[in-house]
Every structure is written in C-alpha cells, then in structure tokens.
Amino acid sequence: MGEHIERLGIKPDLVLSSPAKRAKKTAKIVAHKLGYSEERIEWLDRIYEASVQTLLYTVCQLPKEAKRVMIVGHNPALTMLANILGDVAIDNIPTAGIVGIAFDSSDWHEACRMQGHTILFDYPKKVKGLS
Q1: Domains of the chain by range and CATH?
Q2: Which end of the chain is more exposed for a tag (fewer CB within 10 A), N or C?
C-alpha cells in the first residue's frame, strides 16, 4: 500500500501512529516508501484503542502547517472517523486500507467540525486489481 500511495503522489506533512506493534510496522514501511523520515513519526498512545471521539479530538488539534496528515491506527474507531469526516459511507476499512478526506478549510479546528470529501478509499484487494 505504501507503493500505491507513492504512485498516487501523496506526501504527508505529518504521520501519527499508534505505538502498537503492527501499526508501528505499517507506519514505518509506508513512511519509508514515501520518503518520510521514521524519526519524524509521532507515536501517540492515545491512538491505541482510541474512541472515535479521541481520534476526532486529535484531528481538531492538528497543527495548521500540516496540510496532509496520515493517521495509522485501529478499527473500529478509524472507520467511524472516516464516516464522520467523509461523505462516503464505509462499512469497514480493511487491514492496510487507506482513506483520503479533503476539507474546504485549511484550519484543522474548523475542518474537524465539517464534512469533508472522501477522495480515496483503497485497500490491498482492491489495489491488486488496479495493477
């Protein structure tokens, strides 16, 4: 999926990840593929077993200078977050799935209070068919 994100030209300004073993491994692999330094990944305990409210609060507190943010975490909270922030209903984000949501505001405090536009929903089985 890291290679897929790279092909799409997505370059995060900030990567936040749960410190759980699989999430850490995923974040490191994807960051490497995107040329994002592993040392810059922010490991946030609050993402591990987070509620959707905790994730939404995290999004609302993102720094303005981070225009593209990648959050590596866990379900069901990430799927719920994608459904709150995006405009496409997603039943489940599969393992290694990615969702991209764009907002009309560049201020995260404002963006987390509005519905964004789901511009990407890919996952390994879907991407395999795109090759």
Answers
A1: 2-126 (3.40.50.1240)
A2: C
